[in-house]
Design goal:
Blueprint (H helix, E strand, L loop, with lengths): L1 H48 L12 H16 L34
């Protein structure tokens, strides 16, 4: 008797999961169709008014994101990295350095 109940419960669980998956899939399809419908109405309105049809784009300012994360990293290390807290600094001119010793010369003859 319990074997029949376990099989029936498994069948009910499988059918329930299948229905939940179908409902989820249908909701995604409806959402996609709504977005498509809105875009088509927008494109039609642009054509009727003589404006160019422009695609929907997501614009992102990468520099602002970099600055946000860079400032958070600076805040975690403390305030010692600020430019105002520099006590001793020596300014050197690096344009006068013309001697390079750690580079091997290139071969000048072609193969």
């Amino acid at each position: 008797m319990s074997d029949v109940i376990l099989k029936l419960l498994g069948l009910v669980l499988r059918v329930g999961l299948l229905l939940a998956g179908l409902v989820f899939f249908a909701s995604l399809m409806v959402a996609g169709l709504l977005v498509l419908l809105v875009w088509l109405v927008r494109a039609l309105w642009a054509k009727l008014t003589g404006q160019p049809v422009s695609p929907w784009t997501f614009q992102m300012n990468r520099q602002a994101n970099w600055q946000r994360f860079y400032q958070q990293a600076q805040g975690q290390r403390g305030r010692a990295a600020d430019a105002d807290n520099v006590v001793d600094a020596e300014v050197t001119d690096v344009t006068d350095v013309t001697v390079v010793t750690d580079v091997e010369p290139k071969r000048t003859t072609p193969r």
